[in-house]
Amino acid sequence: MARLLFCYGLCAVPAATCGGDLGAPGCLRALGSNPGFCAARAKTSIVEGLEPESAACIRPCPPDARTEMAKFFGHMERAPRYLSDTDATNLFESGKNFFNHFGALTRMSLRLQKQEFLLRPKLHVLTHFLMDLKRYRTNPRMFHCYVDEDSMGLLKRICLKAHVRHRNLHLMRCAKLRLRAMKRLMPRLNRVAGVRAKKKR
Predict the structure, then answer these.
(1) How many CA atoms lie within 13 A of 26 on its CB side?
(2) What is the residue range of 189's domain?
(3) Which is nearest to 129 in space by CA: 100, 86, 95?
(4) Is residue 134 domain-shared with residue 71, that is, in the same domain?
(5) How do residues 114-131 score in pLDDT, each as one tens digit?
(6) Closest among 65, 60, 61 to 105, alpha carbons compared
(7) Per the structure, how many domains does the chain have?
(8) Residue 153 counted as domain residue
(9) Is 150 inside any structural domain?
(10) pTM reported for the whole predicted model
């Protein structure tokens, strides 16, 4: 695009300065200082340049890490327990693309010496999810949840507050209460699952 503007006399800097980007500082300064620049003329020149070289000028922007992670969770929530080839492929591709973008963002963060990630996913667990998706085609939503991670925080609080002499007893009581609560909750979960299965039929 900078080469096109240079040919029309709208840009006083060489094309290499802008690097093909109209938002580059050198290109913006040249456009702002040129009294003959107007929106209509720029639009005409851009359209004339895009028509023969649309494939070279217009390139789809790659999705970022947030988009791929959102797609991964979206597919996972909508997919059934046993995945089809299409569902497994979509989930695997979204996770793999997320890994690629996350690696690039990590290298950029190290180069700039800035930590920009407020939320860090557990990449090791995600790696196993992707391997199982490709191998067994089973939805991770059916066997993984964040209840276990929440219980780890609960156990940590018990270990910090309980006396050393009675710590094991408190941990066993906590585990027993969780089992009782889950036993009471399971019939309701089974009824809801049965209703959903009947609706799908």
Answers:
(1) 14
(2) 161-200
(3) 95
(4) yes
(5) 766 655 667 777 888 888
(6) 65
(7) 3
(8) no
(9) no
(10) 0.44
